[in-house]
Fold this protein.
Amino acid sequence: MKVLEAIKAGSKFLKEKNIPTYILDSELLLSKSLKKPREEILINLDQNINKKVLEDFNKYLLRRSKKEPIAYLFGEKEFWSKNFFVNKDTLIPRPETELLVSKLVTIFKKKKIIILDIGTGTGCIIVSLLSELKNSNGMAIDISREAILVAKKNACKFKLSDRIKFLHKPFEELYGKKFDLIVSNPPYIKRKDIKNLSDDIKKFEPKMALDGGNDGLDLIKKIIYKSKKILKINGMLALEIGSEQIKKVSKILIDNKFKINCIIKDYRNNVRCVIAEYK
Ligand SMILES: C[S@@+](CC[C@H](N)C(=O)[O-])C[C@H]1O[C@@H](n2cnc3c(N)ncnc32)[C@H](O)[C@@H]1O
């Protein structure tokens, strides 16, 4: 079989299984099976494929047809132009989170700060920040032991292990340290809305990374209260939030003596991040 035929057959199969991105996914899965970049296989459509590659491709197609995200199939996801290890115990890093990283890099460039990343998951936020803020150091905390293992692997991959301390425990139990910046992309989906998420998310991503309690704000509120105790005066809290949460989150921040510094909108014009200063 040739590359073109395989891509077509794979797309057809995924389309029948209602995978919306069936062509792209078929190309990506074949390129992974061939261990070559997608761009390269697309200019060699006549290339023959051997039996082993075809077997790998079919295995990937089957898993993808059951809605398993490509990032979990490959064990990696690009974020901030770096390939992060991911697995089923970690949320797949999202582009909205890059917007937050980008803003924080602009604010803190050339400064020397201590950062806490609450709910670090793959470590994508703290690793990306520290790869830019060369004079700074960080701490990353997660309630999931498995996530901390992945985050440590990523810190090691990007040679940042000596600048990040990892803690496996609930952030509520963190005492005795003060930070210049606390950043978090916490679980913020309303519990009752989880069942309405796409299968890719609700069947595969960790519940612990999604569930924000009855109103979606459980963790956000707790992070704001905790931050008051562990931020330095004039320290910053940077939160990723759900697209309809800005009003409520702003109120909680202001009621707790934070001054809103900036908000960040996503590509759909929804407010998705808020940065506030503790006064
Ligand atoms: C939405 S994920 C974010 C992962 C990563 N920071 C990112 O942006 O891709 C939230 C993370 O918070 C962690 N988490 C949930 N409750 C926690 C708690 N009480 N203390 C620490 N981490 C918690 C979850 O295990 C999960 O890894």
User: Anything to note?
Assistant: The first strand starts at residue 76 and ends at 79. Strands lie at 76-79, 82-85, 114-118, 137-142, 164-168, 179-184, 231-240, 258-265, 271-278.
